[in-house]
Design brief:
- This protein is of the alpha+beta class.
- It is 18% helix and 24% strand.
- Strands 9, 10, 11, 12, 13, 14, 15, 16, 17 and 18 form a 10-stranded antiparallel beta sheet that branches. The chain has a 5-stranded antiparallel beta sheet with strand order 2-1-3-4-7. A 3-stranded antiparallel beta sheet has the order 8-19-20, with no helix packed on it.
- Strand 19 and strand 20 form a beta hairpin.
- Helix 3 packs across helix 6, helix 4 crosses helix 5 and helix 5 runs antiparallel to helix 6.
- The longest helix has 15 residues.
- The two termini are 42 Å apart.
- The relative contact order is 0.11.
Amino acid sequence: MTLELGDHVWYWNGNISLDQNIPRALWFPGSNPHDPNDYQGHGKEIYNYVIHADEIARGRPHMRNYEGSFAWLNNNPGNITGRPGGSDFGQYPGKFNWHNFLIFPTWSDGFNAIALLLRSMAYVNLSILDGFKKYAPESDGNNPVAYANAVAAALSHEGVTVNTRIGDLTDDQMLVMQYKIQEVEGAIPGDSLAWDSEDIPTEIASQLPPSVRVPSRPRALHRRTASFDIDVSAPVENSGFTGGLGGPHQGGHQGPNWYIQYGMDIGADEGTEVYAAFDAHITKFQPHNPAQDNGSVYGAQIFMRAPNDMMGGFYTHLTDVPAGIAAGTTVSRGDLLGRVHRFGGIPPHLHLALVEIIGGAPGGQYVGVDLYQLFLDLELAEPGTVVPVTFWQDGSDPTSS
């Protein structure tokens, strides 16, 4: 499966679903089928991600008043719904979120769609009052009379009343009605994530298309004059090392995420000890859940950053992670992180990726780095060998002594 622009993904506890609705029967078998809000206490843990060219939008729209409403996630300020083969309002073709909400490429596209809908045969011959009664009916807890009165009051100097035919509104007058609908629908902002954000679950990141990312604005490198050194050592117990299985940009190590694109597969016997290759603090940890292992995502996952927050790493395909490993804890170079996990017929290996953070986290520019050959050399060197690596903070490749 490869995700497309306009796709939405439900995520919970390592599980993903492209169903329009949360797959409650599958994820929560004991939930009440007659209660659509019964998530067996896990509602706050469920997220909806929507794939846009300039961001990955994340929210919890199924939870009342939580971040990331459907209007915001879908770039659909009018909460316009549709059906397969229905009217084209500029939405992503064939993409629907919960309740058949349309998904638009940009907020402007969704805002303009309100006018297109109001000028369609469904609304064009209705009065402003009747239009609001249809768009935001009182039976749904709305006050269409108040909405119509507000629009008429704003345009009263132009002779507009609640009985004015929608089709007779000028484009400027229509804007007033569009803004009122946007206000009524009430978009709640969520999280706007870059495509290479560590906050995107690997189960989703591994399915992102590699060639459609369009940055919303330049993410300029923060030039710094001060470089820094990080001491690194072999991440896999030397005696269990079996060889390199592929470095950055090789095989399945494709973009857009640095922790996949710059992956280094370091072959090792199943159960070989895996160590922290540098001093770090753990920023994100996902324990190993064997029931969720698949051919691309399996084993525990650890994101970590150096003490200065200017470089970091990602470890996966681990099992038997020590109990003390968790987000917020610190590790020293050489500390045990777990053991190499084997899944199916895939040769056992550690997947390790490194990144330099120009300007430092948070807010810096994440630039994946290729130290594949260095780590292969460390695996073949005397146990305990330490090599200083210089990171230049200017976008150039790091160098080792």
